[in-house]
Amino acid sequence: HPEVLGTDRIRDGYYSTVYQPADGGAGMIHMLPVKWPSNAADMDSLWPGQDYAGKVTSMGKTFFQTASYGWRSVAAWFKVTNRVISGCGLDLFDQSYTTQTKCILSRVVDRQEAYVVVGRCMAASAR
Length: 127
Known about the structure:
Elements: H1 2-12, E1 19-20, E2 25-26, H2 36-46, H3 52-59, H4 61-65, H5 67-79, H6 97-105, H7 112-125
Antiparallel strand pairs: 1-2
């Protein structure tokens, strides 16, 4: 989904920031620490037997900076965790780009630039 990649880009500066010391947020979608336990619990429900909640407790921000966990964290947010934002609680993979933006950033902003960049990269890699 280019929407997923486009959504992530606006949130963390094209993957250049997977940790923000100003607010302690970390991950591919820059999640605040208060939301980490919910996201990890959702990951555990989507992929049982992995103890993501325990790993978040022991690893902290590093968990969300690790590619193997970070991408699953994004998927869990898109599937379930976005319920922490008022008016969301949707499977974002089936939603419009605007709804995805609202259910990640808690507001709608113009992310067309990121969407176009990701779309060009995906088209080039398909050749």
